[in-house]
Amino acid sequence: MSKLSHTDDDGRARMVDVGNKDITRREATAQVEVFLNDEAFTAVLKSKSKKGDVLGVAKVAGIQAAKKTSELIPLCHQIPLDQVEISFLINEDKKMIVIKSTARCSSRTGVEMEALTACSVAALTIYDMLKAVQKDISISNLYLIEKKGGKSGEYVRKNT
Fold this sequence. Notes:
With 160 residues, the protein is of the alpha+beta class. Helices cover 28% and strands 30% of the residues.
């Protein structure tokens, strides 16, 4: 079994020292699904939420969250992000919004947590903006799709 990078020899939490790692181009893409009822889904499609443009606000929230990941996840490094993209795929049959985020940087450590945090906060923003219409919104299947760069190389999730 591989040793966890965020624990010391005694099993206590520690921040990884990335000072000797090379600066390389890194990229990560994550995804999450948000399931809505008919009324909430229609509100998104017709931009009829009382709080405004649901997807527009969720996009900005996701980007902002990616930039603040190290403030939210205790052992993450501050990373100067080059770009964060957020996209939405609307599935009318399932009344579902698939949120994808891609984070890019040139750094000594990866941006997986930034991509995952962007998805999470974008989904929570959709919930916040629609909770007056639907209290039982379901957010599920948050996962990393792929990552590029760094010592461990590429990762692509199977069965996405």
